[in-house]
TrEMBL record:
InterPro entries to which the protein is assigned, alphabetical: DEF8, PKC_DAG/PE, RH_dom
The keyword Zinc appears for this protein: yes
Ranges where the Phorbol-ester/DAG-type domain occurs: 41-95
Protein name, entry field: Phorbol-ester/DAG-type domain-containing protein
Keyword Zinc-finger: yes
Organism: Macaca mulatta
Keywords on record: Metal-binding, Repeat, Zinc, Zinc-finger
Cited Pfam families: RH_dom
Amino acid sequence: RLNHRDYLLESPHRFSVADLQQMANGVHKGFLKTLIKFASQHVYHCDLCTQRSFICQICQQHDIIFPFEFDTTVRCAECKTVFHQSCQAVVKKGCPHCARRRKYQEQNVFT
């Protein structure tokens, strides 16, 4: 699928001359859309990749979410935990994972 373009996954801001030619010809966008669809389907169905998914710690639903789901998820800047955007909007007091970690650290200070 990558046609010897592994660098697109490793360094998404790096382009080859062939990529630039495809951009000029208007075909690179279609190639990238196909690549994204292929990669997404792989991630959603691969046993190893799904182990790198998240479960929203706010709603606790069992559907897995990934940080690359930009339209529906948000990521904590501090701990990098991923939540549904709709859940994060409801809970305005911050990241529950960070709150638990701070509480745990405070308890350890006093013991």
